[in-house]
């Protein structure tokens, strides 16, 4: 309101100024006006007047544009640390050695989207589909940030500070066959570098955020033992002050927040989104439900074996793609998306951890996700998925499956057609929320996963800033073990989901 009043006053002042200037001009050249005899002379004087006024109006336009930009970006400015290249760009140059089994170089072309898939089987749309790796998010996010409309080189006006460290690519080099000190080396160096920067002292890192494009457990080694998994990036005291963005967060820790896995779809325009949504609305679905994945016989509590058995015995009402066979169609996006587009429900049982990239692939296909624990989505993607999970998904408790107290086919068959239709529409509406736009484009109508993430980070940092100014610390008001409850429900009372979050293996889930 104050800004609009100020703008109105400024416009009136300029109007009065211009009127007085013209009046002065007429008085000064009164005699000449009386003596004018040719159109050329009049034209020359008008041209002279325009030249005199041009710098004033150009300056005014520039000031107006600057003010509009400042108003649009107030509270949204982000400062990006200029890290030494060994923390990001140099890792891309070492792409052949980042993964023990896969040459990652093919996945870093096109700003981290991977190679274009084309559309030979007519499963995708004509453009916007790429062979994107599930662990490429750090690169994609960084390239999107380079196009963010409210970047600033002045850290003092920044609402938040982005740290473009490729933490997941870094640790992936050392997860197998390296000792703990090697795995920790770059993380410790980064924290030291940040601590020595003046930006750190403003809020002791509480306004800093970074993306770690793997699951949180790859960065939460709680014991300095070579035999334990991952590095200790997220358990360092300085890291606990920062907002850490991962593709899977810890329900029992308060400093990491989950954002969607990257999918294969990276639309260029809003219209690309609308066309795909309309296509998924019209899609014919022959299977009631489907599952793409492999069993986990070495994980004691895994329900995947039972899920696959029920799928096989469903009399062709379930589509099954086993990812453990030699052909391994699961590595080929066209097969995954074809099956999901052909199914009403897509089963998402936990695998090595709670979450799955498959969840977001199924949403792209308009396939209603079926979860077996709220840890797979409901307490994870709080900035991107509705809090009312019943609107877009189904929850079947994993204990009921493990103890064979439920038939998945029967449970899903009992859902009415009208409710299925409403749920599918909610899923299709979520497609922009879980999609990362092509970094080279800019949408006008929709917000993508990047936009929603930045909005969530800025709101969190502003809340922390206000707490610091008031001498408060909300994290002291609850046991960190109850973080999932606090961030999902805003309170830590007894909850019907408590049994899902009994941390039984602290060496795995630190």
From TrEMBL:
Location in the cell: Golgi apparatus membrane
Membrane-spanning segments: 12-29
Entry membrane topology: Single-pass type II membrane protein
Domain Exostosin GT47: 72-412
Keyword tags: Glycosyltransferase, Golgi apparatus, Membrane, Signal-anchor, Transferase, Transmembrane, Transmembrane helix
Organism superkingdom: Eukaryota
Family affiliation: Belongs to the glycosyltransferase 47 family.
Organism (species): Coffea canephora (Robusta coffee)
Gene Ontology molecular functions: glycosyltransferase activity
InterPro entries: Exostosin (IPR004263), Exostosin_GT47 (IPR040911)
One GO cellular component, as annotated: Golgi membrane
Name of this protein: Exostosin GT47 domain-containing protein
Pfam families the UniProt entry points to: Exostosin_GT47
Main localisation: Golgi
């Amino acid at each position: 309101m104050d800004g609009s009043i100020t703008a109105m006053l400024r416009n009136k002042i300029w109007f009065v100024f211009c009127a007085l200037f013209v009046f002065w001009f007429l008085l000064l050249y009164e005699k000449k006006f009386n003596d004018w005899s040719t159109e050329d002379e009049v034209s020359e004087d008008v041209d002279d007047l325009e030249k005199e006024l041009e710098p004033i109006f150009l300056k005014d336009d520039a000031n107006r544009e600057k003010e509009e930009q400042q108003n649009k970006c107030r509270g949204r400015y982000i400062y990006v640390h200029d890290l030494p290249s060994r923390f990001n760009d140099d890792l891309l140059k070492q792409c052949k050695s980042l993964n023990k089994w896969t040459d990652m170089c093919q996945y870093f072309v096109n700003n981290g989207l991977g190679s274009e898939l084309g559309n030979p089987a007519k499963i995708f749309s004509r453009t916007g589909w790429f062979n994107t790796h599930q662990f490429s998010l750090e690169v994609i996010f960084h390239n999107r940030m380079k196009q963010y409309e409210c970047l600033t080189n002045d850290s003092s006006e920044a609402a938040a500070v982005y740290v473009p460290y490729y933490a997941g690519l870094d640790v992936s080099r050392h997860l197998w066959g390296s000792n703990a000190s090697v795995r920790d080396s770059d993380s410790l160096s980064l924290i030291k570098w940040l601590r020595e920067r003046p930006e750190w002292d403003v809020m002791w890192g509480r306004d800093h955020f970074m993306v770690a494009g793997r699951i949180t457990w790859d960065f939460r080694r709680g014991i300095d033992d070579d035999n334990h998994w991952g590095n200790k990036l997220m358990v360092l005291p300085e890291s606990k002050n920062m907002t850490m963005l991962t593709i899977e967060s810890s329900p029992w820790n308060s400093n990491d927040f989950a954002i969607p896995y990257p999918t294969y779809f990276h639309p260029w325009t809003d219209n690309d989104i609308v066309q795909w949504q309309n296509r998924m609305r019209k899609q014919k679905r022959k299977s009631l439900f489907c599952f793409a994945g492999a069993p986990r016989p070495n994980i004691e509590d895994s329900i995947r074996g039972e899920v696959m058995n029920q799928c096989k015995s469903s009399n062709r009402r379930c589509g099954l793609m086993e990812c453990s066979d030699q052909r391994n169609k699961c590595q080929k996006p066209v097969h995954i998306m074809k099956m999901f587009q052909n199914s009403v429900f897509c089963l998402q049982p936990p695998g090595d951890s709670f979450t799955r990239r498959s969840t977001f692939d199924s949403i792209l296909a308009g396939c209603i996700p079926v979860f077996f624990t709220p840890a797979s989505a409901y307490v994870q993607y709080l900035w991107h998925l509705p809090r009312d999970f019943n609107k877009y998904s189904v929850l079947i408790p994993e204990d009921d499956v493990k103890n064979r107290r439920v038939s998945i086919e029967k449970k899903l068959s009992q859902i009415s057609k009208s409710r299925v239709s409403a749920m599918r529409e909610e899923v299709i509406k979520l497609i922009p929320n879980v999609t990362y736009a092509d970094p080279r484009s800019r949408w006008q109508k929709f917000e993508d996963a990047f936009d929603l993430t930045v909005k969530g980070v800025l709101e969190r940092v502003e809340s922390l800033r206000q707490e610091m100014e008031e001498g408060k610390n909300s994290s002291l008001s609850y046991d960190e073990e109850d973080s999932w409850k606090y961030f999902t429900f805003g309170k830590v009372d007894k909850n019907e989901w408590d049994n899902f979050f009994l941390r039984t293996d602290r060496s795995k889930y630190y």
